[in-house]
Amino acid sequence: MDDLIKKLSKAEFFGKFPESDRAALAELATPRRLRSGEYSCYQGDIWPNVLFVSEGRLDWSMISVAGKEHVLFSLSPYDVFFGHSIFDDKPMPASLKATENSIVYRWDRKVILPILYRHPETLWEIAGMLTGTMRKAREIIYGLAFQPVAGRLATLLLDQFSDPDDVSVERDLTLNAIASRVASSPEVVCRILHQFQSEGVLEVTRATITLHNRSALKDMLEPE
Questions:
Q1: Which of 41, 92, 100, 153 is the most exposed place for a label (fewest CB within 10 A)?
Q2: Which among 60, 50, 41 is positioned nearest to 14, based on CA atoms?
């Protein structure tokens, strides 16, 4: 329990709580180990819970009517996720799936709300976080509607090189995962990556991505 209390102190929202409330959260938490590919909740579930990622990584992904999966964002260690159902008792709009072996802690609404109510400033911050999530989803949907696949792929690749000094980064996404994030097929993504390589923009191996021409990727984001 001491280890969980320490981790909660590094989490958004919970890190601002007094030690006594973090200890209460640790005692009330329901732990779960997720294998890679296992779901914490499914799109369409009524899931009024809060989730804390202790170890591993989870994707928040949506399945379209046609059955295509699109990853909206990922959760990493110390991230806190508030299930939509906790606020309106309606089905979850997407699924949470572990992309590697993970350890998470869950609190049901009736367990965590009394603690949250003791910190009204946190409720305001949660509202801000949810608003930011909606804006991010809007940008993603807008990009899917108006950006060609090459532009969406360029955006994803540039996100991997967030530090301007980075030249080479570890490749932590499979071809299928990249295709899911840019709402395309692995075959199309593979062709575009080969095109980028042949033009000297970047080099992709099984382990790394090396960027040779950042400006070329940025140019693909500009409207034609």
A1: 100
A2: 50
Q: What is 148-219's CATH number, 3.90.1150.10, 1.10.10.10, 3.40.50.300, 1.10.10.410? A: 1.10.10.10
pLDDT one-digit tens code per residue, 117-172:
999 888 888 888 888 877 777 676 666 655 788 888 999 999 888 787 788 888 88
**Type of residue at 155:** T
Distance CA 198, CA 66 (A): 33
| Exposure b/e, 115-137, CB count within 10 A at least 16 = b | bbeebeebeeebeeeeeebeeeb
Q: Does domain 2-145 fall into CATH 1.10.260.100?
A: no
Contact between 80 and 19 (Cβ < 8 Å) = no
